[in-house]
Amino acid sequence: xxxxxxxxxxxxxxxxxxxxxxxxxxxxxxxxxxxxxxxxxxxxxxxxxxxxxxxxxxxxxxxxxxxxxxxxxxxxxxxxxxxxxxxxxxxxxxxxxxxxxxxxxxxxxxxxxxxxxxxxxxxxxxxxxxxxxxxxxxxxxxxxxxxxxxxxxxxxxxxxx
Length: 161
Prior knowledge:
Elements: E1 4-8, H1 14-27, H2 38-46, E2 53-59, E3 62-74, E4 79-89, H3 98-112, E5 117-120, H4 127-135, H5 151-158
Parallel strand pairs: 4-5
Antiparallel strand pairs: 1-2, 2-3, 3-4
């Protein structure tokens, strides 16, 4: 595995980051779920009110991986946390320590920021990822399910009395 460089994303990286987001969606068989675009990504990462951060991995003068995350909060711990929305490495660059390096980087950020948690979700069919995360010390919580309200459902819920 060639050397790689891990660094925070910049505004100039948005096209590469969005390309990797599309590659992640394709890998997860969710390409039709990508309804956003690079312009929106730039606004939400680097606009007046940034709501997420990203780190990138470069290898062979190419952006080959990313982690996109944001701050959350634990009411029980009464501490902030980091929620990892997505982590992805192009298939041809896997098994070389890149994913592990990104998770270690995020754990260091969580520690520096006084966070009580670093957490993320994993698809139940992605056993290689589950095994990888467990090897790093993560617990896959069996009793929790993700709840999601999107699109028109947000509008209907917001309009209720």
